[in-house]
Write a structure and sequence with these properties.
346 residues; mainly alpha; 4 domains; Serine Threonine Protein Phosphatase 5, Tetratricopeptide repeat
Length: 346
Amino acid sequence: MRGSEVARDEGASQKAIEQARAAQGLLKSSPLRSEILDLRVLMDVAESYRVAGQYRDAIPVFEQASILMDSLGRGNTETAGTLLNNWALALHLFGRPLEAEKLFRRAIDISSAGQAEEAVSPMLLNNYARTLRDLARLDEAAAYAERAYAKAKQSDARIVLQQSTAMRARIYRDQHDFARASAMFAEVEPMFKRNLPPGHSGFALLLSERSLLEVERGNLKAALQLANEAVPMLEAAVKAGTARKPSLGCSFADPMLNSCSTVRTKQTRMLPRIVLAATGRPAGTFSSHLGHAYLSSGRALQAQGKHQEARAAFRSAAEQLQDTLGPDHPDTRTARRLAEADTPQK
């Protein structure tokens, strides 16, 4: 277990999984085995999978650990709050924010302990803001991100300060408050330079997010330039082993893929080559990332005049987004409307 923890801290994600699984195997034959130790090892296994980006493997182990936690009467403890936060993170990054929101809410309630959320950590507040943003609950998301920022600044929690600043930039962009979004991106850039090593994938993410801001402003030439700068930067990080290969389960890659596909669809009417090629998901898997990929693909097909294929992509998008974002989410409604359209839509 300690070896797994050290490996996670070092970024040796596969070694961390191996060590956690080895601990699990040893515990099964140990005369000192207990349900408490079973719980601790399960949490280590789940967290090792999550840190490695293997969310599909992490999620059922987190669920198993949560069931055991509740059966031991520890479902309202601080440890339970940590488990719920990490489980929710895995769900969110896998593209299932509806489920993640419920778990983050439970974690906040546990941490609050009747203190009106004053005792909740800034990291948990920012994680919740991220999920609320994905669910298009933007006013709530902004409020939680602003509270996370204020608490992080008060306690000099630099990582949360960086993350909450970037989160506010995204939320303000979604609210079409472009001046505040630009100010937040300008504020967070020096934080990235202070906190991250050169070549880190976070710099590619920042370029991608700024590209999406330019898309919203209608500056497609500037947006495409930023997106095209981001892609080779990410590829270099992957080659250097400091970033995972882009996939629709990868948190930093998703905005970049969406940025490139959005810009290229609007400006050149080309089918985004990255949209569905990198899904890597088994049949029957539901993810908002996959839903958005289908939505981007449908728009590109529509721009090419392939209306039947476009409607099929929109139907797939609606199916994915309804399950993961909810039937009333703006993107779900858009996908459903485009799937049902009898005439070509712009």
